[in-house]
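Possible race condition, two jobs.
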Amino acid sequence: MSQTSDRARPRVLAVWLIVAGAVGWWAAFSLTTEKFNALLHPGTSASCDFSVLVQCTKNLDSWQGSLFGFPNPIIGLAAWMAPIVVGFAILAGARFAKWFWLVFELGVTLAFIFVIWLISQSIFVLNTLCPWCMVTWLVTIPTFYIVTLHVLRAGILPAPARIRRAAGSLMSWVPLLAVVSYAIVAILAQVQLNVLNTLF
């Protein structure tokens, strides 16, 4: 791998972290606003309630929507600032210690696991598709892929040389990996909720 490629890839990572962080933060902010509005005006429908299938209210009112005793979007308001800050720091030329990347990877992995759990709860238990939740899924999944591949290729996570080379090669395939992941979620939603027939 050339030095030019080595320099370019962190910039791509940085830009994605900023974009994903901003989109994820906006989704969290929108859901938090909807929750506050519901508390202030009980009985009113959320602006993201489009049908029995596509809505936010059922998700926000469920115990899954406040897993840790407070609305999940509050986690997003705090957590999505991290990738934005890291992204801008990388563009500014910052070099992070190994422990920092390991902590960041841990946070991204926990976010990914949380999102997978939320997807399963939404599709198989609540039987809804929350618009702002889906935006969060949309950016969390590729963020996990790109950060994990980065720490592998850079040798931050201990791995054999062939794994590091494979991770470097897979970086350009992150968009495809994300699309495949979205397709799996869409198929599960269609099988469980019959989305197409319900919407059309």
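Job #2 (started ~2 s after job #1):
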Amino acid sequence: MAIFIILGVPVLLAIGALFVRRERLCGIINCFGYFAVLCASVILFKEIVSAGHIRAFFDFIYLDLLSAVFILVISVIAFAAAIYSIGYIRKDVEQRIISERKARFYYLFFNLFCFSIFCVPAMNNLGMLWVAIEMTTLISAFLVGFYNSKESVEAAWKYIIICSVGIIFALLGTILFSYAFSNSGLSKSLNWSDMAPVAHMLDKNILKIAFIFILVGYGTKAGLAPMHTWLPDAHSQAVAPISALLSGVLLKTAIYAILRFGIIIIKSGELAYFAHLMILFGAISLVISSGLILVQKDLKRLLAYSSIEHIGIISIGFGLGSPLAIAGATLHVFNHAVTKSLMFFGAGNIVSAYKKHNMNAIRGVIKALPFTGIAVLLGVFALSGFPPFSIFISEIMIIIAAFTNGSYFIAGLLLATLSAVFGSFIYHFGKILFGNLPKGTVMQKEPLSSKLAFLFLFILICATGIVLIFKNKDLLWLAQRLLQG
């Protein structure tokens, strides 16, 4: 079955990283492994579209359309990160930033991290869902502090502490959901497939309180403001491929967890309660992130704050609740993942070449790194929501849905913050991409693997933006099924 390939390959690759002595060979094997995972994810998606849902391993694994969408997104970004890692880690070894031995440990933790992320959308038991998300925190903390600098170690500890505090709230929420289930005279279970069908029979007051804990707890991991404070430090200090995974998929797995509990709230008859909370936290995230993007000086922190903005957009999309808004939010999960990964790969190349994070000290990137510079320039327009790039489609769907629903304030807020962020990106990236090179900086050699990663992601960004214009009926059909469980 496809799901066992998806979960098994990262484990086998992690074991292989302990025995393969050459880090370059390890990276190439990783690429083939995650290509197999990507193919399996596409097959799994098709199976679930046909079958509705899949249960496996004595109901321990439960997969529906929501699971399939997130697994597909994770597999795309994991494959891209595996390609990019070959040249990036090779360059670190050549420059003696890390040793060959430490490079192999990078691939060990990379694969364990991917395994833990894939586990999240596969879990039926909500307690095991909590365990899987906590596992992603503990494993990725090693990759945030990978370089052992003062800043990276501090960021790793901040990441662990804040996310662990947040996850405690999520645990309390999970316990309250279980209590509501057992208190209704039903058998004690933490399986989502047992809870969702009888959600209308559960105590709504308990569910409401429980969902607040869930939203605060998993919202911390998702980077929703004001629980976002770990995110800029962790993303700016992590290894560049890991920054892409953190922003592209790790934040989305926390959104997935919120949606899993949110479906129970919706099925209990409290759609408005779910919608208001999602829109509230999404709006706060938009406002805070747009202001911080404007004044940011650190390149990777700028991209981290942009992630908070896009998580806010996704939250608002799901909160609006109409088929058009849900289709836009689901599409935005994918669009943001591929676009932000491309931008973090570009930022990784820039920081590696200039040895600086401060954008005031970086100039003439297109001259020093022509391929990376052009990729980042196109990525800026894609991330800002320009047509024909894919983010334009998902953002315009959410904005139209807001107007259609009569949520004029939310539509205006989206337009205002998106305009402010676009202006900020043009200002910041215009300075670093163009102009004269700093003294002593020369044109850099760009690894083939990073070029392939850029091309892979950019093709997806363009193809999604163009093809899905003609697939709007399919998107609305998917949206209508997505939150039905």
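Residues 293-485 form one domain.
Logs attached separately.
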